[in-house]
Amino acid sequence: MNIQQDISLKPYNTFGIDVKAAHFVSVSSEASLIEVLSSEEFPDRFILGGGSNMLLTKDIDKLVIHVNLKGITVIDENDDYVTLKVSAGENWHQFVLWCIDHNYGGIENLSLIPGNVGTAPIQNIGAYGVELKDVFVNCEAINIESKNKELFDLSACEFGYRDSIFKRKAKGKYIITSVTFRLTKKDHKLNISYGAIEAKLNEQGVNEPTIKAVSDAVISIRQSKLPDPAVLGNSGSFFKNPVIDKQAFEKLKETYPKAPHYVLGENEIKVPAGWLIETAGFKGKRYGDAGVHKNQALVLVNHGDASGAEIWQLAQRIRQKVKKCFGIDIEAEVNVL
Ligand code: EPU
What we know:
Uridine Diphospho-n-acetylenolpyruvylglucosamine Reductase, domain 2, Uridine Diphospho-n-acetylenolpyruvylglucosamine Reductase, domain 3, Uridine Diphospho-n-acetylenolpyruvylglucosamine Reductase, domain 1, 3 domains, four-stranded mixed beta sheet, 8 helices
């Protein structure tokens, strides 16, 4: 066990926040992970995956365990499908590209999402009409208390919109070590109904789209709207899109007849938080080094040296203004620590 002291976590979180870990260890095998968990010297631990969905607001006075398990294994296949078991520390986007190279379909719409494979189920990552749960078979996770490995199948994960059991009952109790996916080998079910993808494919003159063409379109859309964390620190969407009832929506429409929205059910309407934040006047605004992205108001950014507390302060300011302007509560999507 190579445990280091006083390590900056700046390279380990996509917001680029400079907080310190009192103790830090990177584990690249399940055996060393169990060894670390069994050590009585560090009973308080903090699990770090790709660091892409968190805002760190203070130093961590615990043992930070960086999950760095690697490997992709074909565990089953036939003419139509392949089943892949992927270690938690694999970078999500590199895995998507690997699948496209192998002509495995199902996750092309999830191209360029930051983070690692092992953290993808926690918030059921989603984009352009596809969610992780659509291709998910199961995941293995080590129970931190018992150190036993447990298997979570689709229903056990209780997936919802940017949500799973790992954000609720099982929060902080497990370390996901691998995820198993079922992908198509032929007759790929392309999901191009999301307006922006269709438009991009038309613009590129693609008549018979392939998974590679869809991935390229998604990459191009994301690059035009979403900042690259390597260039400008961010954590993707900072807030979830709120769901309001019909009565609240009718009220919103009185002032904003053209408010964008998606009808989910008879009495459930989702309103894009990006639109609420932009309409409340925050798009492109900057307070010191904490800011709101100029192309997508749902994304908060670190222009350089913002602290986690400054980003969190900005998030609070936005929440209060959105509440005041529209009477709608917006909730953080990232984990704030
Ligand atoms: N909008 C604005 N102003 C903005 C941003 C958006 O008016 O600054 C409006 C757009 O005009 C559009 C609507 O809001 O009518 C929706 O915008 P967009 O298509 O960009 O999607 P989103 O709802 O803002 C969600 C996900 C993204 C995902 C996209 C595409 C959440 C919290 N976010 O954003 O996920 O890439 O859809 O599927 O659901 C992430 O989770 O990190 C993420 C980037």
